Amino acid sequence: MKDYTAMDILLAREERVEFQNTLLEKYKLPMLCLRVNYPGVIKDNETSRGISNILKAEIEDKFDTQIVYKCYKVTAEGPILILIIDNIAEEIKKYSIYVEQNHLLGRCVDIDVYNVDGTGISRTYLGYKPRKCFICEDMAQNCVRSRKHSMEQVINYIEEQYKKFNNINI
């Protein structure tokens, strides 16, 4: 596991977006991208890898035979799962929202779904409410923008959820 800088994260994000656009152009099918919401510049660690592997297995199990392309790699952004899925983008997004809302580790990740043309499918587009902060239940966007919670609070929440999951599944 490497130490990265903020610039490394920005460059990795740019490379990922370019890669995603290439995949969308090539396959002309919806895409799912899973990333762990781990704050700070050290996004690659045992917890983020563990969370991504657990949810990767859940998602791959759900879409099993519909997965046309799979890429799992660790970059400065942390662990990233990208899937091209032969299914309706809205159905993929509904399942991703289900995971984010109902799986013990679901609030620790962002699962983005893109239409064939690269347009992101939002929760609100499908009639769902915006995500809530896992610490205070305010709208997550508000807390992120205002930096309402310390990095330590967010990391503690993520670490605790991961420990809970592992204790339940022993």
TrEMBL record:
One of its GO terms (molecular function) is holo-citrate lyase synthase activity. It catalyses: apo-[citrate lyase ACP] + 2'-(5''-triphospho-alpha-D-ribosyl)-3'-dephospho-CoA = holo-[citrate lyase ACP] + diphosphate. The gene is citX. It is an enzyme of class 2 (transferase). GO terms for biological process: prosthetic group biosynthetic process. This is citrate lyase holo-[acyl-carrier protein] synthase. InterPro entries: CitX. Its EC number is 2.7.7.61. It comes from Clostridium cochlearium. Pfam families: CitX. Keywords: Lyase, Nucleotidyltransferase, Transferase. The keyword Nucleotidyltransferase applies.
